[in-house]
Known about the structure:
By secondary structure, the protein is mainly beta. The protein has one domain: SH3 Domains (SH3 type barrels, Roll). Helix content is 9%, strand content 60%. It contains one helix and seven strands. It has one helix at residues 59-65; strands at residues 2-8, 13-18, 21-26, 32-38, 45-50, 53-58, 66-73. It is globular.
Amino acid sequence: MVSQRFRTKIPLIAIVMENGLHTTKFTEAGDVVTVFQGPLDGVRLVEVRWKRVTALMFTVELREHAELLSETPVNVT
């Protein structure tokens, strides 16, 4: 597993939990999100850390509308 950091190029959809309900928000261009259970593969939602909040984002949006900043191996025990 790897941790990947991305910088968004355009606003992207992020699904977050607020008051016990899932809701959508938009990142801003230039925001940095971290994928903890990467690398990105397939067409699915991935869990990310964004602005100190855990969110779900679409892998296809990150691939197409964000730039990879770093990729770090994560030790899983």
